[in-house]
Amino acid sequence: METLKILKVICDKKLFMASEITLFVLGVALIGWGSACTGIWYTILISLGTSFIASCVVILLDLWKQFSDSQILESTINVIHQAGIVKVYRKRDLDKYDSLMAGFKTELNICGYSLNAFFDSYRDLLIEKSKNIPGIKIKILIVDPQSVFSSNRAESEGNAPNAYIASLERLRKAFADYSNIEIRKIPTPLSSMIFRIDDTIFVGPHFYQTLSKSTITYELCPKGFLFEQYLEEFNRMWEKAQNANSNVV
């Protein structure tokens, strides 16, 4: 396979390779001619011949480097394409959410510890879509605010241990009358943020003592295997979670 790729590179550079061969043959000829001479002509011809051959070697090495670099680039692109990574962001609070949220019509999945920013930004939009699009499904999954995992996360972000109890309570009250907005809680920590808006998923890690909104985020599309894996991860947690549409305390 590698040989075929090398041959393809050579075929794509026919004129370049023809010049290389000509230069190499000329170098060999000059050396042969110079070997039959004496005096100053011997020195001149041998020097020219060896210089031509040396130039060919340097150019061929550079060509090999270009081939190797292109192979690395091709492999990297293939990995990114197969994974379905559309873009990598330095932070989590993205302006792109707004346009996707305004246009989503099928399903939204999100998980987090408090989801305060999500609630503040999209409470009214979710209620409007819930009213106007009967088949829409909105799944909100949060870590049980009374669990030790939630308390630890709250403290690591500089909040009181029970800070997220109020977050779940206002989510529950705001969406209690909408059957297609379901809230569940899970008594386990989250390894990743997962935010699905129809056919786009945003994911990112939860770093220690780092605010979620300041954390690296990946945008995924359905064509890659990462989309399916993160969707399966959300569904596994969702199936194990408890209904949160009841009193928190």
Can you put this structure into words, describing what you see?
By secondary structure, this protein is α+β, with helices and mostly antiparallel strands. Helices cover 57% and strands 17% of the residues. An eight-stranded mixed beta sheet has the order 1-7-6-5-2-3-4-8, sandwiched between helices.
Q: Concise description?
A:
With about 250 residues, this protein is of the alpha+beta class. It has helices at about 1-10, 15-35, 40-85, 95-105, 115-130, 150-155, 165-175, 225-240; strands at about 85-90, 105-110, 135-145, 180-185, 190-195, 200-205, 215-220, 240-245.
User: Unreliable segments (pLDDT under 50, ≥5 consecutive)?
Assistant: 1-10
Strand order of the largest sheet: 1-7-6-5-2-3-4-8
Largest sheet: 8 strands, mixed
Give the helices and strands as they follow along the chain: HHHEHEHEHHEEEEHE
Backbone structural class = alpha+beta
**Helicity range of the residues?**
55-70%
Beta fraction: 15-25%
Number of strands: 8
The rounded distance between the terminal residues' Cα atoms is 64 Å
Q: Tell me the number of helical segments per DSSP (H or I, 4 or more residues long).
A: 8
Mean pLDDT: 80
Radius of gyration: 31 Å
Shape: elongated
Q: How would you summarize the topology of this molecule?
A:
Blueprint: H1 2-12, H2 14-35, H3 39-83, E1 85-89, H4 96-103, E2 107-112, H5 116-132, E3 137-143, H6 148-156, H7 163-175, E4 181-186, E5 192-197, E6 200-205, E7 217-220, H8 225-240, E8 242-243
Parallel strand pairs: 2-3, 3-4
Antiparallel strand pairs: 1-7, 2-5, 4-8, 5-6, 6-7
Helix pairs in contact: 2-3, 5-7
